[in-house]
Amino acid sequence: MESSVLSCRPLVDLFYRSRRADDNDDDDYDEEEEEQGDEHEREGPATTTSGRREAILDVVRDPGFNRSRSRRLFGGMLAALTRVVEGEDYLPPDDDDCDDDCDCRKTATATAEESARFLGCCARLVEAHLEGLMGGGRAARAACGGDDEDVVERRKRRSSHRGKVDAVDEALDVARVLHDLLFPLQRGRQRSSSSSSSTDDAVAVVPTAARRWSRLASRAQSDIFSMCEAWWHGDFACREMLVTQLVPLLLVRSLDVDARRRDDVRRLCSVRRAIDLLDFDDESIESLRTHLLRTVGDPLFLKCPEGRRFVGHLLLVDDGAFVADVHGAIRAQIPGARRGVLDAYADIYYGAWRASTGMTAIGDEDRDGRRDAEEEDCAAMMMGEVQSSIEENALQDLMYHAMHASSSSTAKSARAVLDRFHVNKKSADVESMLHRTYGPLLWRGLSSANAKVRARACAVLADTFPLRDPRAGEDGTEAVVSRSVGALVKAMGDEVPLVRAAGSAATARILGSFWAMIPTSDIRTLLNQIVAVHASDASSPAVRAAAVDAVAILLEEDRTHAVFRPLLPSIGNLIHDRSDRVRLAVVNMLLLVKKIRGMKYYHVVPANHLLARLADEGRGRNDPRGPVARALSDLLSNSFFPTGSKTTMTDIVNRTLRLLSDSPQAAVVFYRNASSYLSVNSISKLIAALTKCLCFFVIEEKRKNREDVRGLILAIPEVESIQCKGGHSSTSMMATIAEGVFILWESIEEKLGDSENERAHETMADVFSGNILTEVYRHFVSKFDNVEMGDDEVADCSRAVVAILNCAGKLEGVHCEQLRTHIVDELRKSHDMPTRQRMVADLSPNIALLCRWGMMEEVVQCLASSIRNYFEGDADEPNDSFTMRISGNSRRRTRSSKNANVDNLLTLDIDVCLGIVGHVLKGSHPASASLRTSIMESETAFEAISSALETAKCAAERIMKARTALDGDLRLSRHLGIAIECYGRLLLHKNSMNGDVHSLQLTPDLRSLMIWVTDTVVPSLVKLVDQDNTLNNLDVSGIMSVGSPISAPISAGLLNDSSFVDERRSINVLEDKSKSISTRVTVICCASSVILNFAEWLSIRFVGDPFVTGQMSEMCKLLECSDMTVRMALSPLLFHTAIICLNIDGDAALFEKVLISMKNVEPSQMEADIIHHSMSAVLAQRDERILKVAMCMIIRVTRAIVFETEENDDASMTEPPFIEKIGAFMWKVIEHVLSEKRSSLLLAQCLIDEPKAEAVRESIFKELDGRSPKTNALNKILRRWASENSLKNTINSQHDDKENSNDNHIHAELIGA
Questions:
Q1: What's the CA gap between 314 and 394, in Å, rounded?
Q2: In this model, does residue 879 exceed pLDDT 70?
Q3: pLDDT averaged over the chain?
Q4: Start-end of the HEAT repeats (predicted)?
């Protein structure tokens, strides 16, 4: 071992040390300088280690370093190298070699490090020798490098090297030895990495030495890689012997996620032609084959051009025999791949195919560019085979899947991979290939029996049009155009909407690109299909939208403008289409028309229609911030907010007022979307202008009423208000302006804090400084006292007040001291409001504003204490401490306990408190919804409100136990019902914040509330009804709206957006009734409130709950009582709950229970209305399965009622009619079913499967035959039933005739006897 070290140390010292060091001293070796040595490119004397190393290599590169010197150099190097290799001195010691001898281990490790450096020196010298043979100097070295150098320079140097002498044999021997060490070095590095992770403290020096040797071995490997690459790129003799380990190692390093670099991929790509030498039929190559296929899905290979070039070359190896494997690996990655990955695969396929055609070869930079005739012929033949293999095994398979894939996303991805060929279809070679490969597939796909295949084939036809053979000439082109037009006409007339829509899109793409190529008659035919047929296709909104999109595509071609100018108004009528998809397509088309010179979008759709459409986008189920509303707002932005150097704020204000007066609803939607097309500074200026207009209108109205205007005059100078005098003020317009200010402010609130919007922030601060909001708020609040105002004007004032309070919530409380004081005064005066006004008052925005200003704790405690005091019967004395705390003048508290603070709070009227809580839970306003979220997130606030509302249960129990009149105060019953409803909804809101609403589970509190109703409230009401019938004449129509739960069911949306307190559910009519009915009204209110809560919980959860439905079934016993008032109060809610259960789970058990409970009821007119609304909701179901379940349930209920009736009437000699058997109530249900065509058919379908010869079945069939509207399907079932009856009658007649004949025969025999 010592001899090998001595033989290699001089060379190592010469390369890496700047002075002679001790034999045993390795500390002066600068590893960092070694790793950076190749980066030093300075010319000059060898003053540094790297400089001297370059000088030594330049000597070897120099032409004066002749072959004899090279032989001596590499001969001596080979002898030393052989000793190092034979003794395996380049490997670090194993644990068994040195046992626990630390000195021995250090010596062996130092030897291994010295040997690793020696291997790197040898590789660099061999590489320098090769560079000298190719011309010497660093330019030659660059010519042997990777793909980043100049390709022309490399080709020149390789061409000049051809025909010259090869490297000396000794250099080849050294290179072969070094090449054969690549795998051993790799294994040694892996073993060293595993040993360096050990934690043996006794040999702590080992991990450091192992890591140092691993770095040196990696450097030596890299030098050997460079030497082998230089030998390969220089096309020296026996170069194929120096890549057998190079390629696999580079491949493994490129795929190593932890250690790979992009340079490894570049190196692998530079020697990719070495893969052609591999024998892929050999079984031993299976591991290498697997690694090669892994590159197909590796992100680094797909990201860099060299990686894509390498993967593309895999399609060319082994004469195309590897194509199927590579394509299979790529095809497995295509489904679900991102667009960037698909583009990479497109580059790979396109580059490989072009290389196979000989137009450009992947890796031609590795060749000389000169071949003899025999080589050219052989290469052409091989390339032809590879091209055929790529087209047949890869491209045609992608084309097939682009049309026939089972998944639409897979088909779309396959088309994306082929898109590179479609884009370059104007090339003759590409066009010929598309004709060869698509020809057998496309025309059959257009006639496929599968509609999806036909639709995808239309898209492919547009991608490849004209699919022709470039050698066929004009006649062939005309034939292809004619055939394509026929296919398009057939597709646009297809019976499947998907195919018709695809046909429109394909037609537009083809006409837009080849307008001059297609005959005029064919253009007329195709346009007629799009404009006249598809645009008015009533069966499918997708077809109508596709027609509008097709027109938009065609408008991009200038030559189509003259054709479409008179046709566009008919397309513009679709702006009011029922489908938002069609409306969006029309608006996008108008945005395109807006950019076309000589065409005006308001000539296509009049301006009043656009405003009406914009206003309608904010109504109903339409989303005011949806894509249609945003696009319309963008379309009208220049009309109502013009931009330009000549535009003044006066112009903007005048246009804004015009918009507000013409269509205030459109203005609101316009403002909601302003932030999507206007800058923050522009919106802040618009807010300033609108605020000044609002103040001007308020001043004008105050002056008309001879009121003081000095406060607003100081805030808004007279000069600034002159520009607003063109408008006509009204309460509605002022409310809309206030709402617009808030909407605009809300749209830029998050962006105002950015540094680039500092100017906008200053503008907002200047506008809302002073008492502007306070003065405007006072003006609208004072208008409520005007008894001459109509309901519409009151609603407008409420809108304005809410909008102003919302704007104030955007400011800090210190900037609105007067407004805060005014709000507190309103709360203090709530006791003085008339009873009627207190019941409808909505002070939730005021409360939300106070909470926004940091008074959350005080507000919650005030509400909780007021509710608790009312239901517990405590004193109701107002206190001013809450007022003083709000206004900022609170004194130092003398008691620190929490209870003491609650006692000192202001006590509000119970109507005001419940109204505030109800509207907060309902989320009537954005501020109220925000306060609701804050209460749910605060455990303290939630616990305070919930515990206060829960006291209503105790109050209700006291009333039910007493069973006496409470001075006739039915207001208490109303308050109990609302409080219990709010309590249940508060628990539901809290429950909904714990996760997905569809996976909600009942909390213990909710279960307790339901059990309380069934175990306490229901038995109490049953006993009350059994005692007397005092409630019979009670009108409780105000407790619930009979039509509300059925005709307008609560939508299954998010719980946070649900309506918890409905203003229609007023109980004022009870205030003038008898004193003896308070207890019963209380019970009815409590039961109704809880049923309503859990009905909505089921509808929002959209999954049935056995516990809830079971408890609801227990409540159905209340419907069996003879008291019509109880039924009128509870039956709508129970019907509503039963319909919800039927909708979400197809569970008709509760519905069946409700019908059976009311079987003996003689319905009044109002009860008949309840049945009508309930059955209308059932029969309106779109799901035929659910409707069929309902029909089967009606048959079961009818059978049960008939069976019970027959049991009770066994003694009767005459059979009653069917209507009398089932009762008047059930007959109303069946009568409603028989009035509908669809329900009658489903009822008949359910009956036909029932057992034959059953009385109920026959009776219902007779009613169907006599009463239901007839359809072909129903008539077919009735004929079948009639034939069954005819056959039965025939059999019965034959049976009777036989019996009569037997009787006659017996009678004759008796006479004869």
A1: 13
A2: no
A3: 76
A4: 567-603
Of the CA atoms within 13 Å of residue 614, those in its CB half-sphere come to 30
Structure tokens at 309: 């070039």
Closest among 48, 4, 90, 34 to 219, alpha carbons compared:
34
For 373-385, what is each residue's pLDDT tens digit? Answer: 555 555 555 557 8
User: Helix, strand, coil % (nearest 5) of the chain?
Assistant: 75, 0, 25
Instruction: Report the distance separating Cα 355 and Cα 1304, nearest Å.
Output: 105
What length does the chain have? 1313
First-last CA distance in the chain: 142
- Within 10 Å of residue 823's Cβ, how many Cβ atoms? 25
Name 1155's Cβ contacts closer than 8 Å, sequence gap at least 6.
1193, 1194, 1197, 1225, 1226, 1229
DSSP letter (8 states) at residue 278: S
Nearest Cα residue to 231 out of 49, 413, 366 = 366
Q: Name the burial class of residue 291, with classes exposed (0-12), middle (13-18) and buried (19+) by CB atoms within 10 angstroms of its CB.
A: middle
Determine the residue type at 383. M
Mean pLDDT, range 1207-1219, rounded to an integer: 66
CA angle 1281, 1286, 1290 (to 5 degrees): 150
User: Residue 1175's closest CA among 1231, 1126, 1127?
Assistant: 1231
419 or 218, higher pLDDT: 419
Residue of 784, 692, 787 whose CA lies nearest to 737: 692
Q: How far apart are CA 90 and CA 749, in angstroms?
A: 69
Nearest partner of 830 among 866, 804, 794, judged by Cα: 866
Least confident of 264-273, 427-436, 598-607: 264-273
SS3 620: coil
What per-residue confidence (pLDDT) applies to 59? 80
DSSP state of 1251: P
Residue-level pLDDT at 724: 52
Cα dihedral across residues 1017, 1019, 1025, 1027: positive or negative: negative
H or E segment and range at residue 482: helix 473-492
Inform me whether the pLDDT recorded for 587 exceeds 70: yes
Buried b (16+ CB within 10 A) or exposed e, 757-789: beebbebbeebbebbbbbbbbbbbbebeeeeee
| Distance, CA of 416 to CA of 1131 (rounded, Å) | 59
Residue bearing the bigger pLDDT, 1255 or 376:
1255
At residue 505, the pLDDT reads 94
pLDDT of residue 203: 43
SS3 state at 215: helix
Q: Who's near 887: CB < 8 A, 6+ residues apart? A: 817, 820, 821, 824
Write out pLDDT tens, residues 307-328.
899 888 888 887 667 888 899 9
Give the integer Cα–Cα distance in Å for 661 and 647: 21
- Amino acid in position 219: R
Cβ-Cβ contacts under 8 Å for 359 (sequence gap 6 or more)? 429
Cα angle for residues 1040, 1044, 1050 (degrees, 5° grid): 115
What is the reported pLDDT for 6?
47
* Predicted model pTM: 0.69
CB 986 within 8 A of CB 945: yes
Q: How far is the CA of 1136 from the CAs of 1093, 1140, 1148, 1196, in angstroms?
A: 12, 6, 12, 20
With a cut of 60, say whether residue 699 has pLDDT above it. Answer: yes
For 222, residues 6+ apart whose C-beta sits below 8 A from its C-beta are none
Q: In whole angstroms, give the CA distance from residue 176 to residue 178.
A: 5
**Residue for token digits 């603070």?**
901
Whose CA is closest to 544, among 587, 505, 501? 501
Per-residue pLDDT at 110 exceeds 50: yes
Answer for the pair 171, 74: CB distance below 8 angstroms, yes or no: yes
Residue 856 identity (one-letter amino acid): M
User: Residue 1039: which of 1094, 1082, 988 has the closest Cα?
Assistant: 1082
Tens-digit pLDDT profile for residues 842-854: 788 888 888 888 8
